[in-house]
Amino acid sequence: MGFNQFSPINFHPLFPFNKLGFGLNRVLLSACTAYHLVSSHTQTLHLIPRTWKTNTETLQHVINEIDSDIKSFIPFTRNVPILNDISSEDKIILLKRHAFSIYLVRSAPAFTDCGFLLKNGGIIAWEKFHKLFYGGLSIKMKSFATAIELMHFSEAELGVFLMLIMLQPILMKDVVKTGFDNVFMLIENYALISRTLYYKLSTRDQEERLFDRIQGLLEQVNTINNLHNQTLDLIRKNLICFSVPRLFSEIFGVPRTVLDEEVAEHIRRIKESQEYLKSRGLLNIL
C-alpha cells in the first residue's frame, strides 16, 4: 500500500453543512464517529499472549504493528472533509511528520500493567520494551498513553484530536525542507480543529476543563515523536535482520527489505547465537 491512496474521492457528508449551526465542525465530528477511530486496539483479543526470544524478533512485530496501523488510518484521512482542501502531496508530508504520534495515540489501550499488548495477542514485557524504546523513551510513551486514557475520549473526540496532531502548523525551516505548499490553509484548519475540540470537550464536562490538558498532550506526543528516531536507527543498523514493509519504509525513511522464510530462519538462528554470546559479555549487539 503506497501513497496513491490519497487520490481525491467524493465525500458525502452525513448531513448538509447548513444544518444545526455547526457546519464543517459537525460534519467532521460525525465523520470521526462513523469511522470508529477510538483505537487500533479496541477489538477483543482471545489469543494466548506470547513472548519472543530476541529483541530483533520483537522489533519486527512492532514494525508490522505500526505498518498495519498506518494502513488502517489512511482511509480515514481520505474521508475527513477538512482534509479535502489539502493536496495529496501535503497530506503525505503531514502523515510522515506525525505517523508515529498517531500510532501512539491509537495504541494507548495497549499499555497494560503486564506489558505492551499487540493486536495479534502477543505481549512485549516492559523489560524488553524498554530496550527497544530506550533512553527513557518507553517511560514517556507509557506516561502519555496513561494521560490519553484518562481523557476518556469518545470516538469523535479521539478522531478530532488525531486531526489536531496531524494539522499542527509547520515551522518555516521545515516548510522549506519538506516542500510543504499551503501553509495558510494548514493554519486555518488547525484553528478550526482546535475550536471543534474545545466545543466538544466543553459540552462534555465544563468543570473538568478538559481542553486545558490538550496543549500538554500535544507537547508530550511531539517530544516522543522527535525521540523515536533512535529506535528507527536500531532498525537501520540491523537492517539485514528485518523485513521492512513498503509503507513503513516510505513513511519513516527506512530502506525496504524483504526476507523470505528460509533467510528469516537462518537469521533467527544467527541471532540466537549472538544472543548467547551477548549474554556472556562476548558480543554487544541489539
From TrEMBL:
Residue stretches making up the NR LBD domain: 29-254
One Gene Ontology MF term: nuclear receptor activity
Taxonomy, superkingdom: Eukaryota
Matching InterPro entries: NHR-like_dom_sf, Nucl_hrmn_rcpt_lig-bd
Localisation per UniProt entry: Nucleus
A Gene Ontology cellular-component term: nucleus
Keyword Transcription regulation attributed: yes
Keywords: Receptor, Transcription, Transcription regulation
Signal peptide: none
Record-given protein name: NR LBD domain-containing protein
